[in-house]
Write the structure tokens for this entry.
Amino acid sequence: MDRLANTVRPYAWGSTTAIPELLGTAPTGEPQAEMWMGAHPGAPSRVTRTTPDGTEREQPLSDVIATDPEKELGAAAVTKFGPRLPFLLKILAAATPLSLQVHPDLAQARTGHEAEERAGIPLHAPHRNYKDANHKPELICALTPFEGLCGFRAPGETADLLAALDVDSLKPYVDLLHAHPEDAALREVLTAVLTADPDEIAATVADTAAACERLGGAHAPYAVLAHHFPGDPGVIAAMLLNHVRLQPGEALFLGAGVPHAYISGLGVEIMANSDNVLRCGLTPKHVDVPELLRVVRFDAADPGILRPEASESGEEIYETPIDEFRLSRYVRPEGAAPADLTAATAQILLATAGTPTLTETPHPTTDTNSPTLALTLTPGQSVFVPAGERIELTGAGTLFRATMTA
């Protein structure tokens, strides 16, 4: 197993203090939004390995995996997902809202990527929607109280929320929400909001924000959004969605086509390895309304807060319908029995509390010359474990385990 050296991304919405507090480091004064753990080409983790000439050198995890994918990932994982780590693990720290967005399913991603390739749209062009041919399901697990938006609220409930504001320019949306079947109502209102005259919708957002601030309660979060994104139609679009508060240990799964946004809090996030994002608002970035409306699933539903299912081994699993990633955790008191973490596929292990210890035991027949290796992790530290490595967990603390189903 290898300790990971990870990159922290300084996006503007990031907290200046949350990740430093977890890591026990001094804040820099700059936002620290996401710490990436994995082999994503944008910021691969780094490991120290012995090179063929016998020297130790820090290398990108992506290069290590590319050298021998079956050894690092496991043969079954390479057969199913190809010669790359299919997930990206993050610590995410939001101080201000992220963009309101959706992700395509696998078929939509492939079709969209092929079309943009044929059109010759540069990969990093600001109006490019599909940077790869993969889907991007996500799971966010709260480490602190965490606030977000997830999926459409029932249209009748949204109509009541909007009507209570008594803003004249919102009344046509209220009428639409009452006048049509659920999916048609949501589609018509989102389309109307995103295609409205910019000056008119900006005035509506201003009036809505003032009313939300005056009423408070269930309306208060939308005043916060408008404060950060004055005049943005995404403020009105956000009012169509479920507002969710997670407590530590609770999680949200975000599948294809589900509109969502994170507002504030610290969490562990895992996702399929993709950069495909279609934005609805709360952003100065490109919004492709026709493509967005093609991808969004206009289904009103409860956001479905996930709580982990405990197994006899002490592993608490966040169940999702995705094979590219599997997230679980161990919350271990002092004196807890050792746990066997050996897996047939690669895994990343992340400590978020305490000092859990990982012990790698050589295989008795194939690794007779290798010494036993023990690593104690402090909060924010992580390791990469190649497929099949014999790993035992001891010590007290909380350890997140990211792997896949191959």
Notes: The CA atoms of residues 97 and 263 lie 4 Å apart.
